[in-house]
Amino acid sequence: MNSLIDKYNIPGPRYTSYPTVPYWDENSFTPELWKQSVIRTFKESNAEEGISIYIHLPFCEALCTFCACHKRITKQHSVEIPYLESVLKEWQLYLKLFNEKPKLKELHLGGGTPTFFSPKNLKTLLEGIFETVEIAEHQEFSFEGHPNNTTKEHLQTLYDLGFRRVSFGVQDYDPKVQKAINRIQSFEKVREVTEWAKEIGYRGISHDLVFGLPHQTWEAMESTIRKTMELKPDRLAFYSYAHVPWVKGVGQRGFDENDLPSGEEKRRLYEDGKKLLEELGYIEVGMDHFSLEHDDLYQSLIQKKLHRNFMGYTSSKTQLMVGLGMSAISDSWYAFAQNIKTVEEYQKMVEEGEIPVVKGHILNDEDLTVRRHILNLMCQLETTFDINNSFPELENAFEMLKEMENDELVEINGHHIQITEKGRAFTRNVAMVFDLRMMRNKPETRIFSMTI
């Protein structure tokens, strides 16, 4: 395995989209084309499958130095109401594009720290959206909760509004690691919020763990996993730490890079962590995610309904995902769009009656074909090519895959590709074989985290 790590540990995307953000063709994108794409997709899919909404709530009281999200650090809670008023105004701009009431199937509150906001203010925001939509049957509403500031009132308020999923950011329980990443939280606090959620009735409790953090050792990682098992969350995200300090505004400079585990050490954290999780009853779903058999994520995998988007893996799919808030990304299937990345500029654009997108990408037919195959690989670990609807580099792609087949990472049967159990750890590498935009325009500088 070590030789494979040396061979395949290269910079690569996580493929929450294709094309990936650095390869968006911004020159051919305009806000007007984005709006036309939204109108098209809404007409095609709202009645049958509904829409998704992602709301970016960017405020945090302290900077976690491992985090690569767009956020604003402040202890001033006076920012809450003006920001949420802007989000509701942005939603009203989208409502003007629709020819009927949206059917809301999926809603996620991400950040930042959504639980930075008071339960009362979150309720005002959500009721402002709910009064404009039809709630779909079997909707999926979820939010990210910081264990240190998620109160029982937060959990009860959101549950009463239809939320059944909550994800708590744990990362690691080792005090040395927590100090390095500036994320100090006790196991007792995580236990408390997890038990509150269970008591209230949440049926989809998730814990986020991260491997590859500074000073992390297998002994500490094993202890974190075993403590997590005491609380038995329904699902786990077991993320590889993405070290991208060169990205503007990330803030990943609170520790020395020499403190990070080597590629070999990091792979051991993943392999041994995965083995332990499976011994404890968790099943790997897609990439980075594990769940118990009863959880919707596993059931969607079995039913081949697993989906991946900018919110990560989901058990439901909609063609249209509207991103609200500073830096939020939207997806109409035929196009992507990202909002402006500062709170002040975001609020200014919304006040002026503009949907605050500043960059995006309109997918062409080739993009749509490649997107479908990469999505298949990321969600189902397999895909089948139609040689009548392929691309010029397909032959070269299969040549690269043959080398992966020799390394027992994939199995090729005609035009069908299946990622093997051994190859799961290299899923991103397999997907990269079909990334035509990156293949045709290789980056001159490093823009992605390492795949391992």
UniProtKB/TrEMBL annotation:
Listed Gene3D superfamilies: 1.10.10.920, tm_1862 like domain
Pathway(s) served: Porphyrin-containing compound metabolism; protoporphyrin-IX biosynthesis; protoporphyrinogen-IX from coproporphyrinogen-III (AdoMet route): step 1/1
Keywords: 4Fe-4S, Cytoplasm, Iron, Iron-sulfur, Metal-binding, Oxidoreductase, Porphyrin biosynthesis, S-adenosyl-L-methionine
The protein's required cofactors: [4Fe-4S] cluster
GO cellular component, one term: cytoplasm
Cofactor: how bound: Binds 1 [4Fe-4S] cluster. The cluster is coordinated with 3 cysteines and an exchangeable S-adenosyl-L-methionine.
Complexes and interactors: Monomer.
Protein's recorded name: Coproporphyrinogen-III oxidase
Gene: hemN
